[in-house]
Design a protein that fits this description.
With 647 residues, the chain is α+β, with helices and mostly antiparallel strands. Helix content is 61%, strand content 8%. The chain is built from 27 helices and twelve strands. The strands form four sheets. A five-stranded antiparallel beta sheet has the order 4-3-2-1-5. Strands 6-10-7 form a three-stranded antiparallel beta sheet. A two-stranded antiparallel sheet has the order 8-9.
Length: 647
Protein backbone atom coordinates (compact mmCIF):
# COMPACT_ATOMS: atom_id res chain seq x y z
CA UNK A 1 0.00 0.00 0.00
CA UNK A 2 2.81 2.42 0.95
CA UNK A 3 4.73 1.49 -2.17
CA UNK A 4 1.69 2.23 -4.31
CA UNK A 5 1.26 5.62 -2.60
CA UNK A 6 4.90 6.60 -3.17
CA UNK A 7 4.74 5.54 -6.80
CA UNK A 8 1.57 7.56 -7.36
CA UNK A 9 3.11 10.62 -5.67
CA UNK A 10 6.20 10.34 -7.87
CA UNK A 11 4.08 10.13 -11.01
CA UNK A 12 2.08 13.16 -9.87
CA UNK A 13 5.22 15.21 -9.31
CA UNK A 14 6.59 14.14 -12.66
CA UNK A 15 3.42 15.29 -14.35
CA UNK A 16 3.71 18.79 -12.87
CA UNK A 17 5.34 21.42 -15.12
CA UNK A 18 8.95 22.21 -14.43
CA UNK A 19 9.71 25.43 -12.59
CA UNK A 20 10.14 28.37 -15.00
CA UNK A 21 13.76 29.25 -15.68
CA UNK A 22 14.68 32.75 -14.53
CA UNK A 23 17.12 35.11 -16.21
CA UNK A 24 19.46 34.67 -13.24
CA UNK A 25 19.45 30.90 -13.85
CA UNK A 26 20.59 31.42 -17.44
CA UNK A 27 23.27 33.86 -16.36
CA UNK A 28 24.61 31.41 -13.79
CA UNK A 29 24.78 28.68 -16.43
CA UNK A 30 27.06 30.92 -18.49
CA UNK A 31 28.80 32.62 -15.56
CA UNK A 32 32.41 31.92 -16.67
CA UNK A 33 31.76 33.31 -20.14
CA UNK A 34 30.05 36.38 -18.71
CA UNK A 35 32.80 37.08 -16.18
CA UNK A 36 35.46 36.88 -18.90
CA UNK A 37 33.40 37.87 -21.91
CA UNK A 38 34.92 37.97 -25.37
CA UNK A 39 33.46 38.59 -28.78
CA UNK A 40 33.90 34.92 -29.67
CA UNK A 41 32.25 33.39 -26.58
CA UNK A 42 29.47 35.90 -25.94
CA UNK A 43 27.18 35.03 -28.86
CA UNK A 44 25.85 31.69 -27.46
CA UNK A 45 25.30 33.43 -24.12
CA UNK A 46 23.20 36.12 -25.76
CA UNK A 47 21.29 33.53 -27.76
CA UNK A 48 20.24 31.69 -24.58
CA UNK A 49 19.37 34.96 -22.81
CA UNK A 50 17.15 36.12 -25.66
CA UNK A 51 15.57 32.66 -25.99
CA UNK A 52 14.05 33.01 -22.50
CA UNK A 53 11.68 35.65 -23.95
CA UNK A 54 11.53 37.30 -20.53
CA UNK A 55 10.41 40.95 -20.27
CA UNK A 56 13.51 41.95 -18.31
CA UNK A 57 15.94 40.80 -21.00
CA UNK A 58 16.03 44.15 -22.83
CA UNK A 59 16.78 46.13 -19.67
CA UNK A 60 19.50 43.69 -18.65
CA UNK A 61 21.22 43.85 -22.04
CA UNK A 62 21.04 47.64 -22.09
CA UNK A 63 22.59 47.93 -18.64
CA UNK A 64 25.16 45.25 -19.42
CA UNK A 65 26.21 47.20 -22.51
CA UNK A 66 26.39 50.36 -20.35
CA UNK A 67 28.66 48.53 -17.83
CA UNK A 68 25.98 48.88 -15.19
CA UNK A 69 25.79 45.22 -14.07
CA UNK A 70 27.58 44.05 -10.91
CA UNK A 71 28.35 40.62 -9.46
CA UNK A 72 28.15 39.77 -5.79
CA UNK A 73 31.51 38.16 -4.93
CA UNK A 74 29.92 36.12 -2.15
CA UNK A 75 26.96 34.62 -4.03
CA UNK A 76 28.22 35.07 -7.61
CA UNK A 77 24.77 36.43 -8.54
CA UNK A 78 24.38 39.32 -10.98
CA UNK A 79 22.57 42.49 -9.93
CA UNK A 80 21.91 46.10 -10.78
CA UNK A 81 23.02 48.58 -8.12
CA UNK A 82 21.99 51.88 -6.64
CA UNK A 83 24.88 53.79 -5.11
CA UNK A 84 24.36 55.91 -2.00
CA UNK A 85 27.74 57.10 -0.79
CA UNK A 86 29.73 53.99 0.14
CA UNK A 87 26.64 51.77 0.15
CA UNK A 88 25.75 49.73 -2.92
CA UNK A 89 22.15 48.49 -2.92
CA UNK A 90 21.82 45.25 -4.90
CA UNK A 91 18.72 45.14 -7.11
CA UNK A 92 17.29 41.90 -8.41
CA UNK A 93 17.49 41.90 -12.22
CA UNK A 94 14.03 40.33 -12.57
CA UNK A 95 11.92 41.94 -9.83
CA UNK A 96 13.70 45.29 -9.46
CA UNK A 97 13.64 44.94 -5.67
CA UNK A 98 16.55 45.66 -3.35
CA UNK A 99 17.81 42.33 -2.02
CA UNK A 100 20.96 43.32 -0.13
CA UNK A 101 23.41 46.11 0.63
CA UNK A 102 27.12 45.75 0.05
CA UNK A 103 30.28 47.79 -0.16
CA UNK A 104 32.19 48.25 -3.39
CA UNK A 105 34.96 45.93 -2.22
CA UNK A 106 32.44 43.07 -2.06
CA UNK A 107 31.33 43.51 -5.65
CA UNK A 108 32.80 43.13 -9.13
CA UNK A 109 31.64 45.31 -11.99
CA UNK A 110 31.16 43.71 -15.40
CA UNK A 111 33.25 45.69 -17.87
CA UNK A 112 32.65 44.32 -21.38
CA UNK A 113 35.15 45.56 -23.94
CA UNK A 114 34.15 47.44 -27.07
CA UNK A 115 33.88 44.25 -29.13
CA UNK A 116 31.52 42.60 -26.63
CA UNK A 117 29.49 45.78 -26.31
CA UNK A 118 29.12 45.85 -30.07
CA UNK A 119 27.73 42.31 -30.06
CA UNK A 120 25.33 43.21 -27.23
CA UNK A 121 24.22 46.32 -29.15
CA UNK A 122 23.50 44.18 -32.20
CA UNK A 123 21.44 41.80 -30.08
CA UNK A 124 19.48 44.71 -28.62
CA UNK A 125 18.31 45.80 -32.03
CA UNK A 126 15.39 43.37 -32.13
CA UNK A 127 14.03 44.85 -28.90
CA UNK A 128 14.61 48.46 -29.91
CA UNK A 129 12.76 48.03 -33.21
CA UNK A 130 9.50 47.97 -31.25
CA UNK A 131 10.47 50.55 -28.64
CA UNK A 132 7.76 53.19 -27.96
CA UNK A 133 10.33 55.95 -28.46
CA UNK A 134 10.66 56.69 -32.22
CA UNK A 135 14.19 58.00 -31.73
CA UNK A 136 15.26 54.65 -30.31
CA UNK A 137 13.65 52.86 -33.23
CA UNK A 138 15.61 55.04 -35.63
CA UNK A 139 18.77 54.36 -33.63
CA UNK A 140 18.09 50.64 -33.99
CA UNK A 141 17.72 50.99 -37.74
CA UNK A 142 20.97 52.93 -37.88
CA UNK A 143 22.67 50.16 -35.90
CA UNK A 144 21.37 47.56 -38.35
CA UNK A 145 22.60 49.58 -41.32
CA UNK A 146 26.01 50.04 -39.69
CA UNK A 147 26.56 46.38 -38.81
CA UNK A 148 23.89 44.22 -40.42
CA UNK A 149 23.63 40.53 -39.53
CA UNK A 150 21.36 37.73 -40.76
CA UNK A 151 19.75 37.55 -37.31
CA UNK A 152 18.35 41.07 -37.77
CA UNK A 153 16.15 40.09 -40.71
CA UNK A 154 13.39 38.23 -38.84
CA UNK A 155 12.76 40.86 -36.09
CA UNK A 156 12.94 43.63 -38.68
CA UNK A 157 10.26 41.98 -40.79
CA UNK A 158 8.10 41.37 -37.73
CA UNK A 159 8.24 45.04 -36.72
CA UNK A 160 7.10 46.52 -40.05
CA UNK A 161 3.34 45.91 -39.88
CA UNK A 162 2.94 47.44 -36.42
CA UNK A 163 5.10 50.51 -37.13
CA UNK A 164 2.91 53.63 -36.66
CA UNK A 165 5.39 56.19 -38.01
CA UNK A 166 5.24 56.32 -41.82
CA UNK A 167 8.77 57.64 -42.19
CA UNK A 168 10.23 54.95 -39.94
CA UNK A 169 8.08 52.34 -41.63
CA UNK A 170 9.44 53.31 -45.05
CA UNK A 171 12.95 53.12 -43.65
CA UNK A 172 12.23 49.66 -42.21
CA UNK A 173 10.87 48.43 -45.53
CA UNK A 174 13.94 49.70 -47.39
CA UNK A 175 16.28 48.13 -44.85
CA UNK A 176 14.35 44.87 -44.96
CA UNK A 177 14.83 44.78 -48.73
CA UNK A 178 18.56 45.33 -48.27
CA UNK A 179 18.88 42.56 -45.70
CA UNK A 180 16.75 40.19 -47.74
CA UNK A 181 18.98 40.73 -50.76
CA UNK A 182 22.11 40.17 -48.69
CA UNK A 183 21.08 37.44 -46.22
CA UNK A 184 17.85 35.87 -47.50
CA UNK A 185 17.71 32.11 -47.92
CA UNK A 186 15.00 31.95 -50.61
CA UNK A 187 16.22 32.72 -54.12
CA UNK A 188 12.90 34.10 -55.34
CA UNK A 189 12.63 36.43 -52.35
CA UNK A 190 16.17 37.68 -52.85
CA UNK A 191 15.62 38.32 -56.55
CA UNK A 192 12.40 40.18 -55.76
CA UNK A 193 14.18 42.31 -53.14
CA UNK A 194 16.98 43.11 -55.56
CA UNK A 195 14.43 44.14 -58.18
CA UNK A 196 12.78 46.47 -55.66
CA UNK A 197 16.16 48.04 -54.93
CA UNK A 198 16.89 48.72 -58.60
CA UNK A 199 15.01 52.02 -58.40
CA UNK A 200 17.07 53.31 -55.47
CA UNK A 201 20.32 55.23 -56.00
CA UNK A 202 21.34 55.49 -52.36
CA UNK A 203 24.89 54.63 -51.38
CA UNK A 204 23.73 51.95 -48.98
CA UNK A 205 21.79 50.23 -51.77
CA UNK A 206 24.86 50.13 -53.98
CA UNK A 207 26.94 49.02 -51.00
CA UNK A 208 24.54 46.12 -50.43
CA UNK A 209 24.40 45.00 -54.05
CA UNK A 210 28.07 45.34 -55.01
CA UNK A 211 29.25 42.50 -52.70
CA UNK A 212 26.88 40.16 -54.51
CA UNK A 213 29.04 40.60 -57.60
CA UNK A 214 32.37 40.07 -55.87
CA UNK A 215 34.48 37.47 -57.64
CA UNK A 216 37.60 35.48 -56.95
CA UNK A 217 40.01 34.24 -59.64
CA UNK A 218 40.45 30.52 -60.13
CA UNK A 219 42.15 28.17 -62.52
CA UNK A 220 39.57 27.00 -65.02
CA UNK A 221 40.45 23.36 -64.37
CA UNK A 222 39.97 23.83 -60.61
CA UNK A 223 36.45 25.25 -60.72
CA UNK A 224 34.09 22.95 -58.80
CA UNK A 225 30.90 21.69 -60.40
CA UNK A 226 27.98 24.05 -60.00
CA UNK A 227 30.14 27.09 -59.30
CA UNK A 228 28.72 30.46 -60.32
CA UNK A 229 31.25 31.45 -63.00
CA UNK A 230 31.36 35.10 -64.05
CA UNK A 231 33.57 34.53 -67.09
CA UNK A 232 37.16 34.15 -68.26
CA UNK A 233 39.84 36.56 -67.09
CA UNK A 234 43.32 37.30 -68.36
CA UNK A 235 46.42 37.49 -66.14
CA UNK A 236 47.56 41.08 -65.99
CA UNK A 237 44.01 42.44 -65.88
CA UNK A 238 42.65 44.35 -62.84
CA UNK A 239 40.95 41.16 -61.67
CA UNK A 240 44.12 39.03 -61.69
CA UNK A 241 47.74 40.09 -61.61
CA UNK A 242 50.41 37.99 -63.32
CA UNK A 243 52.06 37.28 -59.98
CA UNK A 244 48.82 36.09 -58.40
CA UNK A 245 48.12 33.83 -61.40
CA UNK A 246 51.65 32.40 -61.21
CA UNK A 247 51.30 31.69 -57.47
CA UNK A 248 47.97 30.01 -58.18
CA UNK A 249 49.62 27.70 -60.70
CA UNK A 250 52.38 26.86 -58.24
CA UNK A 251 49.82 25.99 -55.55
CA UNK A 252 48.03 23.75 -58.05
CA UNK A 253 51.26 21.98 -58.96
CA UNK A 254 51.11 23.23 -62.55
CA UNK A 255 54.28 25.30 -62.27
CA UNK A 256 57.42 25.56 -60.18
CA UNK A 257 59.17 28.65 -58.88
CA UNK A 258 61.66 29.97 -61.44
CA UNK A 259 65.15 29.62 -59.97
CA UNK A 260 67.15 32.80 -60.24
CA UNK A 261 70.79 32.97 -61.42
CA UNK A 262 72.19 32.63 -57.91
CA UNK A 263 70.06 29.55 -57.19
CA UNK A 264 71.10 27.92 -60.46
CA UNK A 265 74.78 28.62 -59.78
CA UNK A 266 74.53 27.13 -56.31
CA UNK A 267 72.91 23.99 -57.77
CA UNK A 268 75.71 23.63 -60.30
CA UNK A 269 78.38 23.98 -57.62
CA UNK A 270 76.62 21.49 -55.34
CA UNK A 271 76.47 18.86 -58.11
CA UNK A 272 80.09 18.92 -59.33
CA UNK A 273 81.33 15.36 -59.67
CA UNK A 274 84.83 14.50 -60.92
CA UNK A 275 85.29 18.00 -62.30
CA UNK A 276 82.05 17.97 -64.29
CA UNK A 277 78.39 18.92 -63.89
CA UNK A 278 75.83 16.75 -65.71
CA UNK A 279 78.65 15.47 -67.89
CA UNK A 280 79.92 18.96 -68.78
CA UNK A 281 83.48 19.76 -67.64
CA UNK A 282 83.63 22.70 -65.26
CA UNK A 283 86.30 24.28 -67.43
CA UNK A 284 83.74 24.68 -70.21
CA UNK A 285 81.30 26.58 -67.98
CA UNK A 286 82.97 29.91 -68.65
CA UNK A 287 79.96 31.62 -70.22
CA UNK A 288 76.40 32.21 -69.00
CA UNK A 289 75.01 30.31 -71.97
CA UNK A 290 77.11 27.28 -71.12
CA UNK A 291 76.09 27.39 -67.49
CA UNK A 292 72.41 27.69 -68.45
CA UNK A 293 72.70 24.66 -70.78
CA UNK A 294 74.44 22.65 -68.06
CA UNK A 295 71.70 23.53 -65.58
CA UNK A 296 69.00 22.31 -67.99
CA UNK A 297 70.84 18.96 -68.31
CA UNK A 298 71.31 18.82 -64.54
CA UNK A 299 67.57 19.42 -63.94
CA UNK A 300 66.81 16.39 -66.12
CA UNK A 301 69.21 14.20 -64.12
CA UNK A 302 69.13 15.49 -60.53
CA UNK A 303 66.62 16.74 -57.99
CA UNK A 304 66.87 20.46 -58.70
CA UNK A 305 64.09 22.87 -59.76
CA UNK A 306 63.26 22.57 -63.43
CA UNK A 307 64.00 25.60 -65.56
CA UNK A 308 63.56 26.66 -69.16
CA UNK A 309 65.82 29.41 -70.49
CA UNK A 310 63.81 32.54 -71.24
CA UNK A 311 60.90 31.41 -69.08
CA UNK A 312 59.01 34.27 -67.38
CA UNK A 313 55.91 34.54 -65.26
CA UNK A 314 54.04 35.95 -68.25
CA UNK A 315 54.98 33.08 -70.52
CA UNK A 316 54.08 30.49 -67.90
CA UNK A 317 50.64 31.87 -66.96
CA UNK A 318 49.87 32.50 -70.63
CA UNK A 319 49.46 28.77 -71.16
CA UNK A 320 46.76 28.43 -68.48
CA UNK A 321 43.06 29.39 -68.44
CA UNK A 322 41.62 31.43 -65.59
CA UNK A 323 38.04 32.37 -64.72
CA UNK A 324 36.35 34.67 -62.25
CA UNK A 325 33.92 32.91 -59.92
CA UNK A 326 31.27 34.79 -57.98
CA UNK A 327 31.49 34.47 -54.21
CA UNK A 328 27.67 34.43 -54.32
CA UNK A 329 26.81 30.87 -55.35
CA UNK A 330 23.32 31.61 -56.71
CA UNK A 331 23.45 32.57 -60.40
CA UNK A 332 19.91 34.02 -60.35
CA UNK A 333 20.88 36.38 -57.54
CA UNK A 334 24.02 37.60 -59.29
CA UNK A 335 22.08 38.08 -62.54
CA UNK A 336 19.45 40.14 -60.73
CA UNK A 337 22.16 42.15 -58.92
CA UNK A 338 23.96 42.86 -62.20
CA UNK A 339 20.74 44.08 -63.85
CA UNK A 340 19.83 46.14 -60.80
CA UNK A 341 23.23 47.81 -60.65
CA UNK A 342 23.03 48.60 -64.37
CA UNK A 343 19.66 50.25 -63.79
CA UNK A 344 21.00 52.11 -60.76
CA UNK A 345 24.06 53.24 -62.73
CA UNK A 346 21.81 54.75 -65.40
CA UNK A 347 19.75 56.53 -62.75
CA UNK A 348 22.89 57.78 -61.02
CA UNK A 349 24.13 59.14 -64.34
CA UNK A 350 20.87 60.98 -64.92
CA UNK A 351 20.99 62.43 -61.42
CA UNK A 352 24.62 63.45 -61.90
CA UNK A 353 23.58 65.36 -65.00
CA UNK A 354 20.81 67.04 -63.00
CA UNK A 355 23.24 67.85 -60.17
CA UNK A 356 25.68 69.28 -62.71
CA UNK A 357 22.85 71.37 -64.14
CA UNK A 358 22.08 72.73 -60.67
CA UNK A 359 25.75 73.60 -60.19
CA UNK A 360 25.82 75.29 -63.58
CA UNK A 361 22.64 77.22 -62.79
CA UNK A 362 24.07 78.29 -59.44
CA UNK A 363 27.31 79.49 -61.04
CA UNK A 364 25.34 81.24 -63.79
CA UNK A 365 23.36 83.18 -61.17
CA UNK A 366 26.62 84.31 -59.55
CA UNK A 367 28.06 85.41 -62.89
CA UNK A 368 24.81 87.19 -63.76
CA UNK A 369 24.90 89.20 -60.53
CA UNK A 370 28.56 90.02 -61.07
CA UNK A 371 28.14 90.99 -64.72
CA UNK A 372 24.75 92.71 -64.95
CA UNK A 373 26.10 96.00 -63.64
CA UNK A 374 28.98 95.86 -66.10
CA UNK A 375 26.54 95.03 -68.91
CA UNK A 376 24.53 98.18 -68.20
CA UNK A 377 27.64 100.37 -67.92
CA UNK A 378 29.36 98.93 -70.97
CA UNK A 379 26.19 98.89 -73.03
CA UNK A 380 25.14 102.49 -72.38
CA UNK A 381 28.49 104.23 -71.95
CA UNK A 382 30.90 101.97 -73.87
CA UNK A 383 33.25 102.25 -70.90
CA UNK A 384 35.58 99.34 -70.17
CA UNK A 385 35.58 99.51 -66.36
CA UNK A 386 38.46 97.41 -65.07
CA UNK A 387 37.55 98.45 -61.52
CA UNK A 388 34.20 96.64 -61.66
CA UNK A 389 35.61 93.77 -59.59
CA UNK A 390 36.64 96.22 -56.87
CA UNK A 391 33.02 97.40 -56.55
CA UNK A 392 32.17 93.75 -55.86
CA UNK A 393 34.90 93.75 -53.21
CA UNK A 394 33.57 96.99 -51.68
CA UNK A 395 30.10 95.46 -51.37
CA UNK A 396 31.50 92.38 -49.61
CA UNK A 397 33.48 94.50 -47.15
CA UNK A 398 30.37 96.60 -46.50
CA UNK A 399 28.58 93.42 -45.43
CA UNK A 400 31.52 92.46 -43.22
CA UNK A 401 31.57 95.85 -41.47
CA UNK A 402 27.83 95.72 -40.82
CA UNK A 403 28.17 92.26 -39.26
CA UNK A 404 30.64 93.72 -36.79
CA UNK A 405 28.03 96.32 -35.84
CA UNK A 406 24.88 94.17 -36.04
CA UNK A 407 25.40 90.79 -34.34
CA UNK A 408 22.27 89.21 -35.83
CA UNK A 409 23.42 87.69 -39.12
CA UNK A 410 19.98 87.76 -40.72
CA UNK A 411 19.41 91.42 -39.93
CA UNK A 412 22.96 92.39 -40.89
CA UNK A 413 22.65 90.74 -44.32
CA UNK A 414 19.26 92.37 -44.96
CA UNK A 415 20.74 95.76 -44.05
CA UNK A 416 23.94 95.06 -46.00
CA UNK A 417 22.16 94.63 -49.34
CA UNK A 418 20.78 98.20 -49.60
CA UNK A 419 23.81 99.63 -47.79
CA UNK A 420 26.24 97.95 -50.23
CA UNK A 421 24.18 99.34 -53.09
CA UNK A 422 24.32 102.85 -51.61
CA UNK A 423 28.07 102.74 -50.93
CA UNK A 424 29.05 101.40 -54.33
CA UNK A 425 26.49 103.61 -56.11
CA UNK A 426 28.11 106.65 -54.52
CA UNK A 427 31.58 105.35 -55.36
CA UNK A 428 30.51 104.75 -58.95
CA UNK A 429 29.02 108.21 -59.33
CA UNK A 430 32.17 109.77 -57.88
CA UNK A 431 34.34 107.76 -60.25
CA UNK A 432 32.23 108.75 -63.24
CA UNK A 433 32.22 112.44 -62.31
CA UNK A 434 35.92 112.65 -61.48
CA UNK A 435 37.46 110.35 -64.09
CA UNK A 436 35.21 108.63 -66.62
CA UNK A 437 33.40 111.70 -67.95
CA UNK A 438 36.71 113.18 -69.09
CA UNK A 439 37.64 110.06 -71.07
CA UNK A 440 34.55 109.34 -73.19
CA UNK A 441 35.38 108.13 -76.71
CA UNK A 442 38.91 107.27 -75.54
CA UNK A 443 38.57 103.56 -74.68
CA UNK A 444 42.26 102.79 -74.23
CA UNK A 445 42.80 105.64 -71.78
CA UNK A 446 39.58 104.68 -69.97
CA UNK A 447 40.82 101.10 -69.63
CA UNK A 448 44.18 102.24 -68.24
CA UNK A 449 42.58 104.71 -65.85
CA UNK A 450 40.08 102.22 -64.44
CA UNK A 451 42.83 99.61 -64.14
CA UNK A 452 44.87 102.06 -62.07
CA UNK A 453 41.80 102.80 -59.92
CA UNK A 454 41.28 99.07 -59.32
CA UNK A 455 44.86 98.74 -58.04
CA UNK A 456 44.41 101.78 -55.80
CA UNK A 457 41.13 100.42 -54.38
CA UNK A 458 42.78 97.06 -53.63
CA UNK A 459 45.59 98.79 -51.77
CA UNK A 460 43.15 100.92 -49.79
CA UNK A 461 41.27 97.79 -48.78
CA UNK A 462 44.52 96.15 -47.67
CA UNK A 463 45.42 99.20 -45.59
CA UNK A 464 42.01 99.21 -43.89
CA UNK A 465 41.24 95.51 -43.48
CA UNK A 466 44.64 93.88 -43.88
CA UNK A 467 45.56 90.97 -46.11
CA UNK A 468 43.79 88.32 -44.03
CA UNK A 469 40.49 86.99 -45.38
CA UNK A 470 37.48 88.31 -43.50
CA UNK A 471 34.39 86.17 -42.85
CA UNK A 472 30.96 87.18 -44.07
CA UNK A 473 28.78 84.78 -42.10
CA UNK A 474 25.52 83.59 -43.60
CA UNK A 475 22.39 83.43 -41.39
CA UNK A 476 21.76 80.13 -39.66
CA UNK A 477 18.76 79.36 -41.85
CA UNK A 478 21.10 79.26 -44.86
CA UNK A 479 23.28 76.58 -43.32
CA UNK A 480 23.22 73.14 -44.87
CA UNK A 481 21.96 72.06 -48.25
CA UNK A 482 18.84 70.95 -50.04
CA UNK A 483 19.53 67.26 -50.62
CA UNK A 484 17.25 65.34 -52.96
CA UNK A 485 19.18 62.07 -52.79
CA UNK A 486 22.72 60.74 -52.42
CA UNK A 487 23.70 62.34 -55.74
CA UNK A 488 21.77 65.60 -56.05
CA UNK A 489 22.18 68.43 -53.58
CA UNK A 490 22.72 72.19 -53.54
CA UNK A 491 23.56 74.49 -50.65
CA UNK A 492 20.92 76.90 -49.37
CA UNK A 493 23.35 79.79 -49.91
CA UNK A 494 23.51 79.00 -53.61
CA UNK A 495 19.72 78.81 -53.74
CA UNK A 496 19.51 82.21 -52.03
CA UNK A 497 21.92 83.72 -54.59
CA UNK A 498 19.84 82.24 -57.41
CA UNK A 499 16.68 83.79 -55.94
CA UNK A 500 18.49 87.12 -55.53
CA UNK A 501 19.57 86.99 -59.18
CA UNK A 502 15.95 86.38 -60.24
CA UNK A 503 14.77 89.30 -58.10
CA UNK A 504 17.30 91.64 -59.72
CA UNK A 505 16.42 90.39 -63.17
CA UNK A 506 12.78 91.31 -62.55
CA UNK A 507 13.68 94.67 -60.93
CA UNK A 508 15.98 95.68 -63.77
CA UNK A 509 13.38 94.74 -66.37
CA UNK A 510 10.81 96.83 -64.52
CA UNK A 511 13.22 99.78 -64.22
CA UNK A 512 14.24 99.71 -67.87
CA UNK A 513 10.78 99.03 -69.28
CA UNK A 514 8.38 100.69 -66.81
CA UNK A 515 10.13 103.82 -65.53
CA UNK A 516 11.16 107.16 -67.03
CA UNK A 517 14.78 106.46 -66.12
CA UNK A 518 14.66 103.20 -68.03
CA UNK A 519 13.11 104.92 -71.03
CA UNK A 520 15.85 107.54 -71.03
CA UNK A 521 18.59 104.90 -70.62
CA UNK A 522 17.25 102.96 -73.59
CA UNK A 523 16.99 106.14 -75.63
CA UNK A 524 20.59 107.13 -74.89
CA UNK A 525 21.72 103.60 -75.62
CA UNK A 526 20.08 103.51 -79.05
CA UNK A 527 20.70 107.08 -80.22
CA UNK A 528 22.27 109.61 -77.86
CA UNK A 529 22.00 112.55 -80.28
CA UNK A 530 18.31 112.01 -80.86
CA UNK A 531 17.77 111.53 -77.10
CA UNK A 532 19.56 114.82 -76.43
CA UNK A 533 17.40 116.63 -78.97
CA UNK A 534 14.33 115.29 -77.13
CA UNK A 535 15.40 116.97 -73.89
CA UNK A 536 17.20 114.05 -72.29
CA UNK A 537 20.50 114.89 -70.61
CA UNK A 538 22.95 112.13 -71.73
CA UNK A 539 25.53 113.31 -69.21
CA UNK A 540 23.10 112.78 -66.34
CA UNK A 541 21.99 109.40 -67.71
CA UNK A 542 25.60 108.28 -68.01
CA UNK A 543 26.23 109.22 -64.40
CA UNK A 544 23.15 107.43 -63.08
CA UNK A 545 23.80 104.42 -65.27
CA UNK A 546 27.36 104.08 -64.05
CA UNK A 547 26.18 104.46 -60.45
CA UNK A 548 23.44 101.85 -61.00
CA UNK A 549 25.89 99.37 -62.49
CA UNK A 550 28.33 99.94 -59.62
CA UNK A 551 25.57 99.57 -57.02
CA UNK A 552 24.48 96.24 -58.45
CA UNK A 553 28.11 95.09 -58.30
CA UNK A 554 28.10 95.96 -54.58
CA UNK A 555 25.03 93.78 -53.99
CA UNK A 556 26.74 90.99 -55.94
CA UNK A 557 29.68 91.37 -53.55
CA UNK A 558 27.45 90.71 -50.53
CA UNK A 559 26.02 87.60 -52.18
CA UNK A 560 29.42 86.28 -53.30
CA UNK A 561 30.95 87.01 -49.89
CA UNK A 562 28.52 84.59 -48.23
CA UNK A 563 30.41 81.60 -49.64
CA UNK A 564 33.73 83.03 -50.89
CA UNK A 565 36.53 84.57 -48.87
CA UNK A 566 36.33 88.35 -48.56
CA UNK A 567 39.74 89.74 -49.53
CA UNK A 568 41.04 92.77 -51.35
CA UNK A 569 41.65 90.63 -54.47
CA UNK A 570 38.28 88.85 -54.54
CA UNK A 571 36.95 91.05 -57.34
CA UNK A 572 39.72 89.97 -59.70
CA UNK A 573 38.31 86.44 -59.65
CA UNK A 574 35.11 87.67 -61.32
CA UNK A 575 36.19 90.51 -63.62
CA UNK A 576 37.25 88.20 -66.47
CA UNK A 577 34.07 86.12 -66.25
CA UNK A 578 32.00 89.30 -66.09
CA UNK A 579 33.49 90.66 -69.32
CA UNK A 580 33.11 87.28 -71.00
CA UNK A 581 29.47 87.15 -69.90
CA UNK A 582 28.76 90.60 -71.31
CA UNK A 583 30.54 89.99 -74.61
CA UNK A 584 29.05 86.53 -75.17
CA UNK A 585 25.54 87.59 -74.20
CA UNK A 586 25.46 90.81 -76.17
CA UNK A 587 26.63 94.22 -74.99
CA UNK A 588 24.09 96.23 -73.01
CA UNK A 589 21.27 93.68 -73.07
CA UNK A 590 19.87 92.18 -69.89
CA UNK A 591 18.51 89.08 -71.60
CA UNK A 592 21.80 88.67 -73.40
CA UNK A 593 23.67 88.92 -70.11
CA UNK A 594 21.39 86.29 -68.63
CA UNK A 595 21.99 83.94 -71.56
CA UNK A 596 25.71 84.66 -71.51
CA UNK A 597 25.95 83.93 -67.77
CA UNK A 598 23.99 80.72 -68.26
CA UNK A 599 26.19 79.63 -71.14
CA UNK A 600 29.45 80.37 -69.33
CA UNK A 601 28.25 78.86 -66.03
CA UNK A 602 27.18 75.60 -67.66
CA UNK A 603 30.25 75.53 -69.88
CA UNK A 604 32.63 75.97 -66.94
CA UNK A 605 30.93 73.30 -64.83
CA UNK A 606 30.86 70.93 -67.78
CA UNK A 607 34.57 71.36 -68.44
CA UNK A 608 35.35 70.97 -64.73
CA UNK A 609 33.32 67.75 -64.67
CA UNK A 610 35.50 66.28 -67.41
CA UNK A 611 38.70 67.62 -65.81
CA UNK A 612 37.96 68.06 -62.08
CA UNK A 613 41.57 68.01 -60.91
CA UNK A 614 42.71 71.01 -62.97
CA UNK A 615 40.54 74.11 -62.65
CA UNK A 616 43.15 76.25 -64.43
CA UNK A 617 42.87 74.02 -67.50
CA UNK A 618 39.09 74.34 -67.30
CA UNK A 619 39.38 78.14 -67.34
CA UNK A 620 41.74 77.95 -70.33
CA UNK A 621 39.44 75.67 -72.32
CA UNK A 622 36.50 77.95 -71.55
CA UNK A 623 38.34 81.06 -72.80
CA UNK A 624 39.39 79.26 -75.98
CA UNK A 625 35.80 78.19 -76.61
CA UNK A 626 34.53 81.73 -76.10
CA UNK A 627 37.15 83.14 -78.47
CA UNK A 628 35.97 80.69 -81.12
CA UNK A 629 32.35 81.57 -80.36
CA UNK A 630 33.01 85.28 -80.83
CA UNK A 631 34.57 84.63 -84.21
CA UNK A 632 31.23 83.33 -85.45
CA UNK A 633 29.01 85.71 -83.46
CA UNK A 634 30.99 88.86 -82.69
CA UNK A 635 27.97 90.80 -81.37
CA UNK A 636 27.03 88.10 -78.88
CA UNK A 637 23.95 85.94 -78.51
CA UNK A 638 21.57 88.91 -78.62
CA UNK A 639 22.97 91.76 -80.69
CA UNK A 640 22.06 95.25 -79.49
CA UNK A 641 20.93 97.89 -81.94
CA UNK A 642 22.04 101.47 -81.62
CA UNK A 643 25.27 103.00 -80.37
CA UNK A 644 26.59 99.73 -78.95
CA UNK A 645 26.07 98.01 -82.25
CA UNK A 646 27.85 100.74 -84.17
CA UNK A 647 30.95 100.72 -81.98
Amino acid sequence: MLRTLVTGLFLLLAALPAAAQTLQDVLQQHRPDIEKASRRTIEPVLADIIATDLPEVQLFLERWEARDVWQDDETALFHFVEIDGDTYALIDISTGEVVAEKTKSELSQLRPNSGVRGVIAAALVQFQLGDPDPDRRMDALAAIQRDAEPSHLAPLRASIDDEPDLVIKARKIELERLLTAAFGTDTAARVEAIGDLSTSISLETRAALNPLLNTRPMLADAVPDGANVAGPITPGSPELSVEAAYDMMIDAGLAQPIPDAATRKAALVANITDGAVAGVPVAELDTQEARDAAYVQLAAMADVPAWTPGATHDSIVGDADFVAVYTEPDAEVTRAARNALASISARVGANQVFDLALDGLSLASIYFLAAIGLAITFGVMRVINMAHGEFIMMGAYTGYVLQQIIPNNTVSILVAIPMAFAVTFAAGVAMERLVIRHLYSRPLETLLATFGISIALQQIAKNIFGTQARPLTAPGWLDGAWVLNDVVGISYIRIAIFVLALIFLVLLLLILNRTRLGLEVRAVTQNPRMASSMGINPDRINMLTFGLGSGIAGIAGVAIGLYAQVTSEMGQAYIVQSFMTVVVGGVGNIWGTLLGATMIGFLQKGIEWFNPSNTLAAQTYMIVFIIIFIQFRPRGIIALKGRAAEA
